[in-house]
Amino acid sequence: MSEELIGVLPLWKPRGITSFDAVQRARRFYKTKKAGHTGTLDPDVEGVLPICIGKATKIVEYLTADKKVYAGEVTLGFSTTTEDASGEVVDQKRVDREITEEEVDRVLASFEGELSQVPPMYSAIKVNGKKLYEYARAGLSVERPVRQITIYSLTRTSDIRQEDGKLTFSYEVECSKGTYVRTLSVQIGEKLGYPAHMSDLVRLESGAFKKEDCFTLEQIEAKAEIGQERSLLLSVEHALSRFPVITVSPELEEKVRNGAIIDTPEEVNKLAGDFIALYNQNQECLALYKHDPKRAGMMKPEKMIRGLV
Questions:
Q1: Which domains, from first to last, does the chain contain?
Q2: 137 vs 198: which has the higher pLDDT
């Protein structure tokens, strides 16, 4: 019997392919139908794209919810239909005054914290069962839901380059799930008084996964050709490292694997977080558990990972 297929592939997605294309490639490399990415990257964007393989697909939603870190670039002087460099110009205004580093830095700092965003028309958000980009491609505009996101940090990482009526600078942003960095670039421009768009973007981190953890499609393919593709997978435990951990006894492990409701271990009360990762003595994550709202002092499964049910 072959070893259980479970792990997360830390892919460095190249520009020029969709996240869906990347997942399809991963399915072929690992000869499995079970694969899913943890947060879409646009075709023009490169960067960290963790792909859950095999039984690790059970944790996709938790990794998608993790913080992300991006290296972005904003250009003031014109805005586009897609809010990035690939779209058609919709508004232009020459940057005809000096904008100092101090002014830019103040504006960037003002975005830190809770922030409202309206998703761009060219996005995969669904309205009335249809993706926004489908409306946009048909030349239609619909009312879009306002989303609340969090900017944990936003700092300038380059000098300000100003010429030919345009102004460009780079920044790094740490943000919550659901943040559109394209829209953030537009918002930065608006606060500085000019139409703007995102002129470049790279995802540097996604939850526990960083640029230095990642492999290219060529590296993965080379490993797959010699049957060593599994050596590139990072563990579910690595992926779930942000969750508090409790190690259970062998007796309790059996109950957990069967998805049982269990007494809340005493040490849980000292831990913060909605979910607790329960590990066995071999330091394998069995499941995510949460407090049972109907039974005081009890916990129930949130997500079985290495269960028997």
A1: 6-66+208-239 (3.30.2350.10), 71-198 (3.30.2350.10), 245-304 (2.30.130.10)
A2: 198
Question: Are the C-beta atoms of 284 and 237 separated by less than 8 Å?
Answer: yes
Of 117, 93, 83, 107, the residue nearest 160 (C-alpha):
107
Please state, in angstroms and rounded to a whole number, the distance separating the CA atoms of residues 92 and 79. 7
Residue 215 gets which letter from DSSP? Answer: B
| Partner residues linked to 305 by β-bridges | none
DSSP 55-113: GGGGGHHHHHTS-EEEEEEEEESEEETTSBTTSPEEEE----S---HHHHHHHHHHT-E
pTM comes to 0.91
Mean pLDDT of 141-145: 80
Largest CA distance in the chain: 72
Helices (H), 149-267: 181-192, 217-225, 236-239, 250-257
Give me the residues paired with residue 153 across strands.
174
CA distances from 283 to 3, 29, 184, 223, 243 (A): 17, 27, 40, 27, 14
pLDDT 10s digits, 56-113:
999 999 999 999 999 999 999 999 999 999 999 999 999 999 999 999 999 999 999 9
On the question of pLDDT at 132 being above 80, the answer is no
Q: In degrees rounded to 5, what are phi and psi of residue 180?
A: -100, 110
Q: Looking at the annotation, which residues are catalytic?
A: 42
Interhelix angle 181-192/101-110, nearest 10 degrees: 130
Write the pLDDT tens digit of every residue in 241-250.
999 999 999 9
pLDDT of residue 1: 34
Q: Which has the closest alpha carbon to 71: 212, 181, 207, 209?
A: 181
Q: Is the pLDDT of residue 121 over 80?
A: no
Tokens 């694997």 sit at which residue? Answer: 257
Average pLDDT over residues 2-26: 93
Task: Look at residues 63, 38, 41 and name the one whose alpha carbon lies nearest to residue 238.
Answer: 63
